[in-house]
Amino acid sequence: MGFYLDIYNSTKAIEKKKLDKIMSLSEKAQNNNIPLTVEKAQYILDSSNSVLKDCGRIEFGDSVAFKITDCFLSSANVSKYDFEKVIEGLIEVFYLIKNEINEKLTDDEIIEAMQTVFEKGACGSTVHLAHWAEREIYSIHNGAETLNTNFNELFLKGEEATDE
């Protein structure tokens, strides 16, 4: 019984640290007109835990929920009205990619590519971002070594792709 309580208490302590870390972004969020409440932070953490469970993954080290929240807080495509839902969708896309590419890219590489596509090509749509992810997973399975974030190649069909 003591072992079970130790695991339970350790899990609670880890969850509290993750929540506190997300809450440490509240000033940055406020600067972007996004009120980051404990309830919203808990929603993000719960969403992340749910996705991890659905994917059959466990998380060690830094929280992906924190990294994604931190990265996308300053996005012009995220508003105070749907902030936590957008972060939830981004976490889902992240783990869709992570599960399918067998650790070929780091968390930071995936998040950076997601941010580029989310801002430029997907115009803030997690649905469009998920479609991009599915195409890129297919490319990685077929030998690509990185995620394509070239806006013109990805989203301007029928026009010649050029770098901006």
Structure, described:
This protein has one domain (2-155). It is globular, with a radius of gyration of 17 Å. It has helices at 2-23, 26-31, 38-55, 64-72, 83-100, 107-120, 126-141, 151-155. Helix 4 (64-72) packs across helix 5 (83-100), helix 4 packs parallel to helix 6 (107-120) and helix 5 (83-100) runs parallel beside helix 7 (126-141). It contains eight helices and no strands. The protein has 164 residues and is an all-alpha fold. The model is unreliable at 157-164 (pLDDT under 50). The longest helix has 22 residues, at 2-23. Helices cover 66% and strands 0% of the residues.
| Dominant shape | globular
Derived structural class: mainly alpha
Unreliable spans are 157-164
Question: In DSSP terms, counting alpha (H) and pi (I) runs of 4 or more, how many helices?
Answer: 8
Q: What proportion strand?
A: under 5%
User: How many extended strands?
Assistant: 0
Helical amount: 55-70%
The largest pleated sheet is described as: none
* CA-CA gap between termini: 62 Å
Order of helices and strands: HHHHHHHH
How many individual domains?
1
Radius of gyration over alpha carbons?
A: 17 Å
| Nearest-integer average pLDDT | 86
